[in-house]
C-alpha cells in the first residue's frame, strides 16, 4: 500500500509539473510599435487600408469603411468581434453617426473577412496593432474619439481605453468578451490545448447556421478552425496580464444581453462583463450598464433581431452626455 501511494504521488507530481510548464510556456506578450502612421488626411489612410484589404481578398462588405462628416464634432471608431466584420455593428452605428454629424471608421481586423485559413494563422498581436494604429490615426485628425466594440472588439476597445486614456472620450461596449461561459475553453491556455481539442472535436468548429442563401452569410466565418480560438484566448491572457480595468478613465456604456438565468448571452460570460463594468464605473458618473432582455450576443446588426429602439436610446443619451453634442431626431422618430 505504501508503494502504491509513492507511485501515486510521483504520477501526481509529474502531471502537475507537466501542466504547470505547458501553461507558463504559453504566456503571451506584446509590445506596441514605437511609431504609428499618423496621417494628415484620414480619408487617405482609410483608402490605403481598404485597398490593402481588397488585395488580400476581403469579401465585399468586410473591408474597412470610413464615413466622413464635414465639421464632425467627434469621431466613432468601431471594432468588430472574433470571426466577424463591420456588419456586426454598422446598422446601429451608422444611424447614430448621422444623427450626431460624426465621422465613423470601421476597422477590419487582420485575418478577418477573407478566409478561415487567414483567421487560423493570424496572431492576436496583429489585432492589437490594428486597433492601436486606427486609434492613433483617427485621433490625430479628430479631437474627440468614441470607441465602440462588439465581443472581442469590446476587449480590444477596453485595452485602448486603458492604455491610451487621453485618446478616448467615451467607450461603448456591446457584449464585450472577457471570457467564455464554457469553462472548457481553459484548455487553450496550455500549449497542447488546441491539439487536444482537434483530436476530440475535430479541426472545424461547425456553425448551425449553414444556409449560404442567408444575406448575412458572407459577413461572419460560419465555420472556423477550433485552433483559431487559441488566438482569442492568448489575447485574453495578455489582456488580463495587467490590471486593465482600473486604468480606464473614459465613461463606459456597457450593453449586455440578459433576460434571465436561462435567457442570456452564452457566447461570452455575462458575470465577467458585469465584473469588468464594476471595476470601471468609479471613473465616471456617466457610466452605465444596460441589460437588453430582447437581445442576442450580437446586438447592433440588422441581421439579428434585438431591441434596437432601446439600444439606440441608451447610446444616444450616452453620446450626448460624454460629448456635449445634441443628436438630431432619428428618421424613424420623424415618421412615427
Précis, in short:
The chain is α/β, with parallel strands linked by helices and 336 residues long. 40% of the residues lie in helices and 11% in strands. It has a single domain, classed as Rossmann fold, CATH 3.40.50.1820.
Kindly give the count of domains. 1
Give the helix tally: 11
Structural class: alpha/beta
Enumerate the spans where pLDDT stays under 50 for 5 or more consecutive residues: 10-24
What is the β-strand count? 9
- Main beta sheet: strand number and arrangement? 7 strands, mixed
Output the CATH homologous superfamily: Alpha/Beta hydrolase fold, catalytic domain
Gyration radius from CA atoms, angstroms: 21 Å
Distance between the termini: 81 Å
CATH architecture: 3-Layer(aba) Sandwich
Morphology: globular
Write the layout of secondary structure elements.
Layout: H1 2-24, H2 42-55, E1 65-67, E2 75-79, H3 90-100, E3 103-106, H4 116-121, H5 124-141, E4 145-150, H6 152-163, E5 170-174, H7 193-201, E6 204-205, E7 224-225, H8 229-239, E8 252-257, H9 270-280, E9 288-292, H10 308-323, H11 331-335
Amino acid at each position: 500500500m505504501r508503494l502504491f501511494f509513492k507511485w501515486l504521488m510521483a504520477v501526481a507530481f509529474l502531471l502537475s509539473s507537466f501542466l504547470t510548464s505547458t501553461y507558463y510556456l504559453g504566456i503571451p506578450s506584446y509590445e506596441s510599435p514605437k511609431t504609428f502612421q499618423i496621417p494628415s488626411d484620414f480619408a487617405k489612410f482609410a483608402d490605403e487600408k481598404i485597398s490593402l484589404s481588397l488585395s488580400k481578398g476581403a469579401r465585399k462588405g468586410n473591408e474597412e469603411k470610413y464615413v466622413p462628416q464635414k465639421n464632425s464634432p467627434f469621431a466613432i471608431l468601431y471594432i468588430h468581434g472574433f470571426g466577424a466584420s463591420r456588419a456586426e455593428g454598422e446598422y446601429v452605428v451608422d444611424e447614430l453617426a448621422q444623427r450626431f454629424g460624426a465621422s465613423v471608421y470601421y476597422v477590419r481586423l487582420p485575418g478577418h473577412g477573407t478566409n478561415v485559413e487567414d483567421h487560423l494563422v493570424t496572431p492576436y498581436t496583429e489585432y492589437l496593432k490594428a486597433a492601436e494604429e486606427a486609434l492613433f490615426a483617427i485621433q490625430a485628425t479628430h479631437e474627440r474619439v468614441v470607441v465602440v466594440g462588439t465581443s472581442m472588439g469590446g476587449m480590444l476597445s477596453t485595452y485602448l481605453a486603458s492604455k491610451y486614456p487621453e485618446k478616448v472620450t467615451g467607450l461603448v461596449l456591446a457584449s464585450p468578451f472577457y471570457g467564455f461561459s464554457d469553462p472548457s475553453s481553459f484548455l487553450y491556455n496550455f500549449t497542447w490545448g488546441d491539439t487536444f481539442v482537434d483530436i476530440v472535436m475535430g479541426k472545424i468548429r461547425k456553425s448551425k447556421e449553414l444556409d449560404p442563401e442567408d444575406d448575412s452569410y458572407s459577413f461572419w466565418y460560419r465555420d472556423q478552425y477550433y485552433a483559431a480560438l487559441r488566438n482569442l484566448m492568448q489575447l485574453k491572457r495578455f489582456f488580463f496580464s495587467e490590471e486593465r480595468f482600473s486604468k480606464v478613465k473614459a465613461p463606459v456604456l456597457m450593453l449586455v444581453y440578459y433576460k434571465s438565468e436561462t435567457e442570456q448571452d452564452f457566447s461570452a460570460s455575462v458575470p465577467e462583463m458585469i465584473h469588468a463594468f464594476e471595476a470601471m464605473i468609479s471613473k465616471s458618473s456617466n457610466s452605465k450598464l444596460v441589460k437588453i432582455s430582447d437581445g442576442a450576443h450580437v446586438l447592433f446588426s440588422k441581421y439579428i433581431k434585438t431591441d434596437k429602439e432601446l439600444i439606440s436610446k441608451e447610446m444616444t443619451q450616452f453620446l450626448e452626455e460624454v460629448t456635449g453634442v445634441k443628436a438630431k431626431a432619428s428618421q424613424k422618430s420623424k415618421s412615427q
